[in-house]
Sequence to fold (321 residues):
Amino acid sequence: MERKREKPSSDVLLGILKVGSEGTFFSTNLPEGGFSFVEAGKSQNTTRTMLTYFSLRVEEVLDIVTALTRTGRKIAKRLLNYILKAHKAGHCWDGEWNILDIRVRGDGATLIIDKMPVNATKDGIVADLQKFIVLLRPYYKIEGIKGPAYFDEFHSDVMSLPELESEKFEIFQKFLADHMAFLPPASTSNLLERLFKLCDDIRRQNADFDYRPLQRLDCIGWTKIRDTMPYSKVFHYDQSLSHPYNDNYWDLLRFVRNFINRGLKYTQIDGVQSIEDPVILDIMVAYDLGKFITKLVLHVLYVFEKPKRLVSTWNAYKTSE
Fold:
């Protein structure tokens, strides 16, 4: 028989939207034994506040988009890490859980799935991860505004889950735990800059023209960006080259690094448009090249396998706010 869950008072609902002590995202004034995550969105008085609290509007060149707040990112990551730890321990829910099963414990900081798991399978883990992003999407979405960057990519990236017994499984979990969907766009750009320097140093040491491990044609189509302003100006920066970039990971990494460094110069168009905040460039790259960027990052992690060279770079990325 399912345990009876009492509807909380309006004071408790409002308390959920406040940030408590360090490490606590929800009010500690919660019913003993915890509280259903979804209850915060049941009242008209709290739904709008919750959406606003989780999301900030950021102007893009052509659109208004949704960007997660620091707290919004951390709450999602806390639930995601709980799911990933269960998977690592050999358990999953086969996607058979819903928003009512997500509970906040009485400490106001711990998120759990209040449902008995089963033995993990590859299909079951994929179903859990896709359910995770589907269930949270409404809490990070403002009606009529483009959703958060990399959310769609997270949904599709989980489909490339390796076999559970393979060495790649642990690396893939690391990739998902620090997925770009739950970190600031600027953090992703800084990561790509660091990855470029790391790979470029190895390329130079080997006296190679390109960084060979990234010359895979798994990102066919990204070079179509060459026809779009302001990307085209950076793409054809060296006018002596007819094909300055090709459809491979190495050239994608080079281009994104160059665009982030030079893009502001090409957003000053006859006084009509003037972007001064580099974060806008980070957001543009996330929306226009995101489906290629996440696969690029995962491939770099696989290239370095147990990435000792990446430790400081990755730690700086995942802890950046």
In short: The chain has a mean pLDDT of 75. Residues 184-318 form one domain.
